[in-house]
Amino acid sequence: MNKAAYYKHSGTVGSTGPILMTVLGILTGLIGGVIYGFAMQYCPLIYLNAIIMIGFGCIVGVATGMGAKKGKVRSNTVVMIFGAITGLIAIYAGWISWIYAFTQQKILIFSPLDIFEVATIIAEKGAWSIKGATPTGVVLMGLWGIELLCVVGAASYIAKNGISQPFCERCDKWVEHEVLLTPLTPILDPGQFIVKLESGDMTPITELVLPPVNSKIYSTVTLEHCDSCTENYFVSATISTITEDKDKKETTNTVEILKRLIITRNQFDEIKSMKLERSDSQPSQP
Ligand SMILES: [Zn+2]
Questions:
Q1: Which residue from 40, 45, 195, 267 has the fewest beta carbons nearer than 10 Å?
Q2: 56 CA to middle of ligand 1, Å?
């Protein structure tokens, strides 16, 4: 794969980006942290607690990612670092709130040393039980460590989704325009497909047609371009497979084949104007 042929963020960080990521991320982390602490204390189901924990990290990540997009941050690394920092502040707020809830609103402490000290005392007797077992001491401390990693990790990972769109450096804006061609017949040889497209031959895409009705496997081609200038044209492709379980519940699994290959305006138009014909006739109605 020729990496230079694909879109990559420039690494530039807009001047307001760090402030917006910090303000939105921390604000969400602080408000969410208060709710999180009480939810963790009063939610009776430990499994639901795990969902709340991941969800909390994700919400902080979404807020930080929104700040990144608004502040025109074009660096995944920078956004992930800010996501981790705001995630850390969020879980810190969560612990302050949880200690307050756990102690029946008697202890409200803010200093990290105080929190560590109180946590150590709580850990001696344990804070909750699962299937009759009460984790205490190092085990409980270890679980709190995992909680911290989950929230920080989720916030960091989700934050970068905020800048998943390409950016037009010339127009100083995100590329929002998208054309979706789907469903198409499946890409049969992804390796050959990539080689041909990278060499500038668009026929592996333009030769795709509409799949048979009710086909369980299909391709999707996505075209993106900046609608304010004549630069920045990209093509992406995925293959999706629909599987059915015993209850006839369908699950779609999508595999990325090509992500934002840089193409010319002519190639873009060539793909966009492809005529889509069905590969078989419609099934006759009884
Ligand atoms: Zn542009």
A1: 45
A2: 36
Give the separation between CA 161 and CA 165, rounded to whole angstroms: 8
Decide: 116 and 195 in contact? Cβ < 8 Å.
no
CA–centroid distance, residue 194 to ligand 1 (Å): 26
Residues around the ion ligand 1 (C-beta < 5 A):
168, 170-171, 226, 228-229
DSSP string of 33-50, one letter each residue: HHHHHHHHHH---HHHHH
Structure tokens belonging to residue 60: 């902080």
What's the Cα-to-Cα distance from 104 to each of 48, 207, 217, rounded to whole Å?
22, 67, 56
Q: How far is the CA of 79 from the centre of ligand 1 (A)?
A: 23
**3-state SS, residue 8:** coil
Cα separation of 258 and 64, whole Å? 28
Q: pLDDT by residue (tens digit) across 54-89?
A: 999 999 999 999 999 999 999 999 999 999 999 999
Segments making up each domain of the chain, as ranges: 3-163, 169-272
At 172-230, the pLDDT tens digits run 999 988 999 999 999 999 999 999 999 999 999 999 999 988 899 999 999 999 999 98
Ligand 1 centroid distance, CA of 62 (Å): 26
280: which residues sit within 8 A by CB, 6+ positions away? 212, 213
Distance 169 CA to ligand 1 centre (A): 7
Cα(170) to ligand 1 centroid in Å equals 5
